[in-house]
Design goal:
Layout (H helix, E strand, L loop, with lengths): L1 H20 L6 H21 L4 H12 L4 E2 H12 L3 H13 L3 E4 L2 E4 L1 H22 L4 H26 L1
Antiparallel strand pairs: 1-3, 2-3
């Protein structure tokens, strides 16, 4: 009887440990915490270069565009990414122009060599940290997370559009 009681206690203890260390269910809070943790890492490297997160997002949008972008094009893209106020995004564009990271060519804005160098430097500096963060996560888990996040994004954007209509 003592053996049965000990086994039951051990099993219950193991269940408690498993339950308390189980991954939390994905929800808005866990998504937000993951976002801000990853963003904090990126902002650490951006700060070294005197750049902000919105500046990096805006500069990357200009640098990765297939065709040259107007200020209105970039404002629309960045608003879609950050859900930020267009006036604030225009301030960010002005900051990037003042820093010489973007340049005006007619009605278009293009990243300068300094802008591309900033993006490359931040990517190179943050790559080892990103590798440690993402390394070892099974491909199937990443694929499942990607599907869930894409669906959450789609639904949240639809709700936001309805709220703003």
């Amino acid at each position: 009887m003592t053996t049965t009681a000990s086994t039951a206690t051990a099993t219950a203890a193991a269940s408690t440990v498993t339950a308390s260390t189980a991954a939390p269910a994905a929800d808005a809070r866990t998504l937000g915490l993951a976002h801000y943790a990853a963003r904090g890492v990126l902002e650490h490297f951006l700060t070294r270069h005197g750049a902000t997160f919105p500046q990096q997002i805006t500069l990357r949008a200009a640098a990765t565009a297939d065709v040259p972008q107007t200020a209105d094009d970039l404002v629309a893209q960045v608003r879609g990414f950050l859900k930020a106020d267009p006036a604030g995004i225009r301030v960010t564009l002005d900051e990037l122009l003042a820093k010489g990271l973007l340049i005006e060519e007619g009605s278009h804005l293009r990243p300068t060599d300094a802008g591309r160098e900033l993006l490359a430097a931040v990517a190179a500096e943050s790559a080892p940290v990103s590798a440690r963060i993402w390394g070892g996560i099974p491909d199937g888990d990443l694929a499942a997370a990607g599907r869930v996040l894409a669906l959450v994004t789609e639904r949240a954007e639809a709700e936001l559009a309805a709220l703003e209509a």
